[in-house]
Amino acid sequence: MVMKDPAYRILQSYFTALNSKVVVDEVTIPVYTTTPKGTSGNRIEMSIITQVDESIKDAYMQDVIVSIDCITEFTTRGSRKKSVDISNAVIQLIITTFGGSGLSISGGGYKYIRTSLDNISALDEITDTKKIYRRILTFTNLIEQI
């Protein structure tokens, strides 16, 4: 048996967990797995970074690493705080949803084992015309093929 690729199902599970549910200052933050051209403003962009084979003798296992980029853009006044608030809301939703083994990858021949928040990093860009603040969250998901 060869290990299958669970990445698409995991990304869809994250999208389902976050879409229309991240609300900061009474505003719902849009979530994208593919960001449309010309998108600006506050948003969440997600992608699979990598997959690492963690197989043992009797099981096919993978660490599937998901990156969630919490982006805020301002053309006038604005601060890093909004991106921090968005990332905190995302962390709460992911830990609440997946911490209780709520990652839904059913029907694909996979078993969810655990999710962990591995890294939070920041990237700021300030120009003459805008300010962009980003908080990048990295989650690792251990998945077993059954």
Helix content: 10-25%
Structural class based on helices, strands and sheet pairing: alpha+beta
> What CATH architecture do you see?
2-Layer Sandwich
Largest sheet: 5 strands, mixed
State the low-pLDDT regions, or none: none
Which class in CATH terms? Alpha Beta
The number of distinct β-strands equals 7
Work out the helix count.
2
Order of helices and strands: HEEEEEHEE
Task: Give the count of structural domains.
Answer: 1
Beta content comes to 35-45%
Top keywords for this entry?
two-stranded antiparallel sheet; 21% helix; alpha+beta; five-stranded mixed sheet
Describe this structure in words.
There is one protein chain. The chain is built from 2 helices and 7 strands; from the N terminus they run αβββββαββ. It is an alpha+beta fold and 146 residues long. The protein has a single domain, classed as STM4215-like. A 5-stranded mixed beta sheet has the order 3-4-5-7-6, with helices on one face. The chain has a two-stranded antiparallel ribbon with strand order 1-2.
Please render the helix and strand layout as text.
Elements: H1 7-18, E1 23-24, E2 27-28, E3 31-32, E4 43-53, E5 60-74, H2 81-99, E6 110-126, E7 131-145
Parallel strand pairs: 3-4
Antiparallel strand pairs: 1-2, 4-5, 5-7, 6-7
